[in-house]
Amino acid sequence: DIQMTQFPSTLSASVGDRVNMTCRASQSVSTWLAWYQHKPGKAPKLLIYAASKLGGGVPSRFSGSGSGTEFTLTIDSLQSDDFATYYCQQYDSYMCTFGQGTKLEIK
Amino acid sequence: EVQLVESGGGLVQPGGSLRLSCAASGFTFSGYWMTWVRQAPGKGLEWVANINQDGTETYYVASVKGRFTVSKDHTTNLLYLQMNSLRGEDTAVYYCARGGPAGLYFDSWGQGVLLTVSS
User: If you write DSSP's letter for every residue of B8-41 in order, what string do you get?
Assistant: First the structure.
């Protein structure tokens, strides 16, 4: 199975900051990589698919990059609504896997 | 508008069985992969099972293979997860989600349903 590792586990930032978080795959997944935002008690929300394509209705301050085994989610000009946990997911295989998440906290 | 609504959760004893349902609307159900994802208390998201458009292909995470069965009913637009031989570690919020048009990412999600396995 393909293992996905996210770091950091926790990220502290302020409104207006630019933040980056990383997702690493145990083997190449090409660009078959998605990012989700998840808030407690809510449904996860698709942000990015195909490593860099913006999901429907997602603000342009979110962007994704990378290919192969290393991927980055960038959030420009953090808004208060962005504080949540972020997960990457590979879909190179029918046996999908998620990373363990990066929790974005208010500094 | 795409809507996914899960139901069927609850409290079940270890070793017991339960079936979760997910009612889909607002899209052509038979044209999409569907998935179940779960989140145990205090843990991250874990993919559980995928089923293809016509229900002929299914895939499972190793920890549920042989115990869980995913299926689709295209006459009622319902996605199911039959769960047998339940264990404490199956306690989680279970989400159904729709596969994207360009791959097995998940572009629409339900609100989730809680399963508690405890004596």
Answer: --EEE-TT--EEEEEEEESS-GGGS-EEEEEE-T
Chain B residues near residue A46 by CB distance under 8 angstroms: 100, 105-108
Here the tokens at position B82 are 């039959």
The per-residue pLDDT for range B62-75, each reduced to its tens digit, is 999 999 999 999 99
Q: Is B42 left (phi over 0), alpha (psi -120 to 50) or beta?
A: left
Q: What are phi and psi of B100, to 5 degrees?
A: -75, 165
Closest by alpha carbon to B95, among B35, B26, B28, B30?
Answer: B35
Residues of A in contact with B50 (CB under 8 A): 94, 96
CB contact under 8 A, A44 and B105: no
- Give the pLDDT confidence of A35-82 residue by residue, as tens digits: 999 999 999 999 999 999 999 999 999 999 999 999 999 999 999 999
B40 touches A: beta carbon within 8 Å:
no
